[in-house]
Fold:
Amino acid sequence: MHGWSVSKRAWMNFLRHLSVGLPIAVLCIQGTVAQEDGWVSISETEYVVRGLKDSIDLEVSIKDGFHIQANQLEDPLLIPSEISFRWPAGFSMDTLLYPPSYPFIVPGMASPLKVYSGEIRISIVLAMEQGILSGRHTIPGRFRYQACDSTKCYFPRELPLKLHIRAMN
Structure:
């Protein structure tokens, strides 16, 4: 096996809560409208960054009636929410802080799930190397998550996103 085993009951419970969600088109619209895919949207804002390190907060909205798995999970069968970026030369992420999760009780599961719902903020401390030119920079990324409603979870999704940075050195 792969170094871990899953009880038949846990596997059946997982399969019972997993179902196929219908594909929904991804919208990437510049301006005040968010990048979204039906369950989750991420605000698209220009972040002003001063100095070589600065903090930004990504605002994530989760559709009413749904939740997404948190970043730190206890069940290895669930998909954690995670954000990643393709950092161009001279940019990096110093710190990444996910918000606290809250418990979601699923009948038949031994312990509550750790989830996010509503509005959450993911904090990023952005680091820039000396010599990065002042001005606008776009950093592509993705937000991977698994959405669920009160009775089932859907296949994981990846939402493309862009950090719009205005460097003020």
User: Anything to note?
Assistant: Residues 142 and 160 are 4 Å apart (CA to CA). The helical segments are 8-17. Residues 8-17 form the longest helix (10 residues). The mean pLDDT is 79.
